[in-house]
Design brief:
12-stranded antiparallel sheet, alpha+beta
């Protein structure tokens, strides 16, 4: 049974391996350039600070939201494995994720961005953790988030999934043509997760594994952060010609999404109380069954 009641204070494992050498293992990433976390320290019994570095930003957008969600994911995994001894070979199960970004947050173009992430454990059972995150740039808090995730052993996960997946199957599913990248606030075709479906505010999920930020290594289902990115792209596409600054995101997951079966993404506008704000409920379904539900809110900007 994983130990989750008392964190470990060591920055080295039993074999004396240093933290930097284990960052890929702790974050479940194969590509070094995708690893954003750099170090961590314990502040109190269940509070930690994680140091994170983003690569220099390019393009017209104020920041890359995929780096923000990866910051939360990697910080949580680092603390879970390094501080609470969650086994790295166990499979992580993301249940919920909520994010609020300070309006106007921007990563300066052409320069790396360093942030500190204050991570606080808020609860959990024998095989789960609840965490809150406060992302700070200097003395300024730019993002708040909370999540709950669990984990299962390899044997239990194989029993849970009940299907066979091999690395040789990776990327062999049909890849539909994407919507125009600018419609979803992206620059390249392989950044786009939505394909036209022929209906208003509804798309088919597309998974292009050449995008290593989203698809670092072969897995047997669509990762939760990919579905969150698809939800954000759907909100941008549904907002029309005027760009929108997403400030609030929440997502919950009902079932795994398979790569080799169609997944439909639907955007439904929601009422808002303040002028200039937009809100959407984004749902994903597969085999006519709900897979995830997300709510996003943001500020509409003049083009």
């Amino acid at each position: 049974m994983p130990r989750t009641t008392q964190p470990s204070h060591a920055h080295r494992d039993d074999a004396g391996t240093s933290l930097p050498a284990r960052l890929g293992e702790y974050t479940h990433l194969r590509h070094d350039e995708s690893v954003l976390v750099r170090d961590w320290r314990q502040e109190s019994a269940n509070a930690f600070t994680v140091r994170v570095q983003w690569p220099a930003r390019g393009g017209a957008h104020p920041y890359d939201p995929r780096l923000l969600t990866q910051t939360i994911r990697q910080s949580g995994l680092l603390v879970a494995h390094a501080a609470y001894d969650v086994p790295t070979r166990h499979q992580t199960l993301l249940n919920t994720l909520n994010i609020t970004v300070e309006p106007g947050f921007e990563a300066r173009a052409g320069a790396d961005l360093q942030v500190d992430v204050a991570v606080t454990r808020t609860g959990g059972r024998a095989a789960s953790l609840g965490m809150e995150f406060r992302i700070r740039r200097g003395e300024e808090t730019v993002c708040l988030a909370d999540t709950e995730f669990g984990w299962v052993s390899p044997v239990a996960y194989r029993r849970l999934r009940g299907r066979t997946f091999h690395d040789s199957d990776w990327g062999r599913w049909p890849l539909a043509r994407p919507v125009a990248p600018h419609l979803v606030g992206r620059r390249e075709d392989n950044d786009v997760l939505l394909a036209p479906d022929g209906a208003g505010n509804r798309w088919r999920l597309r998974c292009d594994i050449s995008n290593i930020l989203l698809f670092d290594h072969p897995v047997d289902h669509v990762p939760g952060l990919v579905l969150l990115e698809a939800a954000e792209q759907a909100a941008r596409a549904a907002s029309g010609s005027q760009p929108v600054e997403i400030t609030d995101l929440s997502i919950s997951f009902q079932r795994y999404v398979e790569f080799d079966e169609p997944c439909l993404i639907q955007a439904q506008p929601l009422p808002t109380l303040l002028p200039g704000w937009l809100a959407f409920e984004i749902t994903g379904s597969q085999r006519d069954e709900p897979a995830f539900r997300a709510r996003l809110r943001g500020l509409r900007h003049r083009a």
